[in-house]
Design brief:
There is one protein chain. This protein has 279 residues and is α/β, with parallel strands linked by helices. It folds into three domains: 87 residues, D-Maltodextrin-Binding Protein, domain 2 (3-Layer(aba) Sandwich); 75 residues, D-Maltodextrin-Binding Protein, domain 2 (3-Layer(aba) Sandwich); 84 residues, Alpha-Beta Plaits. Strands 1, 2, 3, 4, 5, 11, 12, 13, 14 and 15 form a ten-stranded mixed beta sheet that branches. Strands 8-7-9-6-10 form a five-stranded mixed beta sheet. Strand 3 and strand 4 form a beta hairpin. The longest helix has 11 residues. The protein is elongated. The two termini are 31 Å apart. The mean pLDDT is 92.
Amino acid sequence: MNDLPRVSYLGPEATFTHEAAILRFGEGAALTPVQSIDAVFDDVEGRRSRWGVVPIENAIEGTVNITLDRLLGSSLLVEGEIRLPIDIHLLTNAGSIEQVERILSHPHAVAQCRRWLRANASGVKIEEVLSTSLAAKMAAEDPKLGALGSRLAADHYGLKIMEEKLDSEIINVTRFFVIGTEKPERAAQSKTSLLFGLKNESGALYKALAPIAERELNMTKIESRPSRKVAWEYVFYMEIDGFAEDEAITKGISELRNLVDFVRVLGSYPVLQRVREAE
């Protein structure tokens, strides 16, 4: 175990980020939970870990801004993307829902299960905690508690799944980034992420997007974030399907550099996707 490259991930154990890390690196990897996204970046930047796994976007809740903001100021590269379907279950050691006095979970999980909770647990007190894993740990210590969490959390803490798939959204998928220092090789399904800053002139964004549109590149995401250098100054984060060394992407980025203040390619990386499993 000690000879394996260390992988830091946003903990604690049995969270969805832990599950994503297992999917990418396997259960036998040197997976190390840390307390925050900042700590994951710090571990990889400080070479204490070879890789880090952090959430970047949920299909319902949107972008994880902390991750994006750290990428803005870091020299690390995105080495991979993991897409994980999120299935939230009711975990407990109570004998029935009537015996559950409180249901605990992370605020996002509570929000995504609100419809089921109103219909089936209207008399139960709902409490928000720091993570789905912490909720499961607390439920394992008290049979009067329930937790909204994953099958991994149920297995890890010895809980029963009383009700399956409480989140009503079939598109509930979270994307995670694998961050590191190396450039990955081309994969069957690759994506390229980059940052750029606009010149302060009329039509700057329109001009910047032209090299992408003219080459019919599939831009799957674009988002602005504060530059953190000058008030009301923004940088743009963009994702494009394909590998950075593809001719069309290479030429598109080259032309983009002539139209904006700066361009930084964050990574060109393989996409790993878990198909939703039958529960």
